[in-house]
């Protein structure tokens, strides 16, 4: 039986899938060439060929997460503008990306290790998304709204669970607060944003 040979792009995608799983399950310090190689049955040399270094792997992962962050938010905003979704979905997409998908942990790790340039793909993706969202909506504070929603999501990803517990609050209270703030800033009532749209 012959094994199908994967393209370089397919091999990179498989490695990045494994890297993201490690990021989510074990934290950013677990995203090493050795660990990713072990997860997918590839050698250290093979991963060096595709990414150049551990920093290259992490940068590629940051690029992937950044693109997914901006694509998910942009799609939720597009659907909201067409009446197919609401601000709650936008907040949930941002919080899920930085929490469950590991973007917050990756960003904090890069800041703490002094590798701030590795954050550029995430920041550039968010900037590009804001530029697209601004078109036709120049009267809205899209940059400011993006700033506080993303910062809240990162803070929640890093400290939300223990802080909510220490304060005796439900785990998702930060997300609920940001939803209310975004609903208020868009001028929708909470009932309308939850799906009870006016005819």
Description:
This is TetR/AcrR family transcriptional regulator. Helix 3 (44-51) crosses helix 4 (54-81), helix 4 packs antiparallel against helix 5 and helix 5 (87-98) runs antiparallel to helix 9 (173-186). This protein is mainly α. The protein has a domain at 62-193. It has ten helices and no strands. It has helices at residues 8-26, 33-40, 44-51, 54-81, 87-98, 103-112, 120-134, 142-166, 173-186, 190-193. The longest helix is centred in the middle third of the chain and has 28 residues, at 54-81.
The count of helical stretches stands at 10
Shape: globular
Radius of gyration: 19 Å
Proportion of β residues?
under 5%
Q: Give the terminus-to-terminus CA distance.
A: 61 Å
Q: In total, how many beta strands?
A: 0
Write the layout of secondary structure elements.
Blueprint: H1 8-26, H2 33-40, H3 44-51, H4 54-81, H5 87-98, H6 103-112, H7 120-134, H8 142-166, H9 173-186, H10 190-193
Helix pairs in contact: 1-2, 2-3, 3-4, 4-5, 4-7, 5-8, 5-9, 6-8, 8-9
């Amino acid at each position: 039986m012959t094994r199908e040979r994967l393209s370089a792009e397919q091999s990179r995608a498989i490695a990045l899938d494994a890297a993201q799983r490690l990021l989510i399950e074990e934290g950013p310090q677990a995203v090493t060439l050795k660990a990713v190689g072990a997860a997918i049955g590839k050698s250290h040399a093979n991963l060096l060929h595709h990414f150049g270094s551990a920093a290259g792997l992490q940068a590629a992962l940051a690029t992937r997460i950044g693109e997914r962050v901006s694509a998910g938010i942009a799609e939720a905003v597009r659907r909201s503008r067409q009446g197919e979704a609401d601000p709650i979905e936008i907040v949930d997409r941002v919080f899920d990306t930085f929490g469950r998908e590991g973007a917050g942990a990756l960003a904090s790790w890069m800041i703490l290790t002094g590798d701030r340039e590795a954050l550029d793909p995430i920041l550039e993706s968010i900037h590009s998304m804001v530029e697209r969202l601004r078109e036709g909506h120049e009267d809205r504070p899209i940059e400011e709204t993006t700033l506080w929603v993303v910062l809240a999501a990162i803070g929640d990803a890093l400290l939300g669970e223990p802080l909510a517990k220490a304060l005796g609050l439900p785990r998702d209270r930060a997300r609920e607060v940001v939803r209310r703030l975004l609903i208020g800033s868009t001028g929708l009532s909470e009932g309308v944003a939850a799906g009870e749209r006016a005819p």
